[in-house]
Amino acid sequence: MADKRENIEIVSLPKYAQADPTFVVSGLCELGETFFSRIGVPHRHDFYTIYWIKKGKLFHTIDTVTHEVKKNTLFFLAPGQVHTLQMSERIEGYMIAFQDAFMCLKDQTQVSGINSGLFFNSQFSSVITLDQDQSIDIEAIVRLMMKEIATREPEYEMALHGLLRYFLVLVSRIKGQSVGISPEQHAQHNSSVFLKFKNLIEENYQQLKTVSDYADLLHIKPVLLNEISKQLSGITAGEHIRNRVILEAQRYLYNTDLTAKEIAYKLGFEDPHYFSRFFKKYTSQSPSEFKEASRTISHQQ
């Protein structure tokens, strides 16, 4: 009998770093054992990751959604997301990875919301297919990044910052996001509050589950937090909190052998029966039904 899988491994960026522990850009084949030993194994990163699959075919499961990839596909993963790569043939491509401190994507004053929107959005990730002309532009930037990493000329970190930002802007345009942001939608204060709120959810969703909890941390009224959330994302603050808790529950149900009771305690629920009712209310499936359905889908791939 196989060992019970109870945890989802967290991988740190230094395991991939060849020169700079805060920024990595590399061909997938050059990542070697560090990368390929995790093929087929669900895990999380504590850093931002961009995969560009140029050639080959694979299945990439992000949280609980499986994408079939053939060529010229970009994946954007935020820290904490669970993902699994399943290769059906040899693949070629690149990985770009960086820690939050390198780019400060959660800080609205440091980088455009367009760029951070590639990682923080209602789908929790972005999957983008490039055409031939777009691939040429993207590859030129990636090769310049690799050159900067290899030569480490004076102020190379500044050059990497600029290249990464340009990369994200180009991909944002490809994705179809508007570069012009209206003052009504993205007033700097409201955007900053919203990004802080999303960050606080990541840090506290196991303990704090009400809008009032987060409004108190932000020193604003719950009704204002809901208004800002609706304005910038289309859904209420309460929905963001619930969605994050449900997503983590789905991650454990999909990627581990933990029971619903064990998952409930991991997520801060004192009553496992309440957790099951909560999960079914917002997904229309009980935890056991979700686990069974996800295993059926997994076995069909």
UniProtKB/TrEMBL annotation:
Signal peptide: none annotated. PROSITE patterns: HTH_ARAC_FAMILY_2 (PS01124). SMART domains: HTH_ARAC. Transmembrane segments: none annotated. The keyword Nucleotide-binding does not apply. GO terms for molecular function: DNA-binding transcription factor activity; sequence-specific DNA binding. Keywords: DNA-binding, Transcription, Transcription regulation. PANTHER family: ARAC-FAMILY TRANSCRIPTIONAL REGULATOR (PTHR43280), TRANSCRIPTIONAL REGULATORY PROTEIN (PTHR43280:SF32). This is Helix-turn-helix domain-containing protein. It comes from Chitinophaga solisilvae.
